[in-house]
Amino acid sequence: MPIYEYEHLKRPCKLRKVFDFKQALSDDPLKECPHCKGPVQKIISQINISCPKTNSELRDLGFTKLVKRDDGVYENVTARDGDSRYMQRDKPETIPDLSKTIRD
Where are the domains of the chain? Predict the structure, then answer.
């Protein structure tokens, strides 16, 4: 269940001015505080998105990163064991083996 942030519109209670509340996606937004019954509104919260920074982090997460080196030539900077370091046009044997990274 996601956690939403709500803000008291009037005087805050022991939950403070802004408080978290866990509820299902299908639930309607709260109109009143579950503690003091005062009016509240749902607010937009800052989210935390973590992005991989290095090629090895990308590889560990199952991504393949190709960098164009020449016309029809790409370097696989996240190559795994058995993968070709360079992928070349018209050479299917140089295509990364995605069965190593794609799973159910």
Answer: 3-43, 55-100
